[in-house]
Amino acid sequence: MSQLKKVLIYRRGALGDTLLTFPVAEIFKKLGYEVTFCGNLEYLQLAKLSGLTDQIISSEFFLSLSLEKFDKKVIISTEGNLNPFPKKRIWLPIYYLKTLGLPRNFSLTLPFPLFQRKKPDLAILHPGSGSSKKNPPFELFERIENFLERLGFKVIYLAGEAEEWLLGLKPKLFYSTDILEIAKFLKEASLFVGNDSGISHLASYLGLKTLVFFGPSDEIIFRPIGKRIHLIKRPLACRPCFPKVCKERPCLDPEILFKLFLRALRYL
């Protein structure tokens, strides 16, 4: 029996960056490769549990790996063989697969095995992100909270390290920095509303009805993977502009975004 070909995928980055790399691992698995994924070990647990990779390794040990044992090496880095930043505005999973000459028939739902009973009235709000420049004023989420509660939803805020300012501010709060615990909690919900963040990427990939506000960041490049996602954005000529964001931030006007949210909710 012939040995499986081996591929090493390296991607060091935040949660959203890592999740947008998962289709590469999935396609190599479909092609019969033994996949080793090197990066943020906590986030890569999601790939391992979902059957997208055979082995996960922390990026701390990348330099000590014996690269010659791999038939293919996909090093997603400015110093690697696949630049993480496309020269043109193209969705990252498609850019990766196209550059590598791989098929593009990847799943839009992460096959995460932890089953949670859905709560049809549970809505999760996540008002933060990895950069405050991408966050609309908090009043937007408070308006959404009040609106959803009037519709009969049970609304709970989700907070991690970047949202510790929510502690003590909102009594209905789920706080965690454990990605598997967060994924388990997300799978209970029927609706998720957030900003351009790693948690929004995860919610969409897990199959939730997901509404995501994109202000200064680029929704074409960084669109989350998912079947039931709706991006809320203003058609302004000045966007995307991240990380060079203006003080006025018209792309994150809470009044206009709330109206767009109401419109988007009807189409989910």
TrEMBL record:
InterPro entries: Glyco_trans_9, LPS_LOS_Heptosyltrfase. Keywords: Glycosyltransferase, Hydrolase, Transferase. One of its GO terms (molecular function) is hydrolase activity. Signal peptide: none annotated. GO terms for cellular component: cytosol. One of its GO terms (biological process) is lipopolysaccharide core region biosynthetic process. It holds the Pfam family Glyco_transf_9. PANTHER family: PTHR30160:SF23, TETRAACYLDISACCHARIDE 4'-KINASE-RELATED. This is Glycoside hydrolase. It comes from Caldimicrobium thiodismutans.
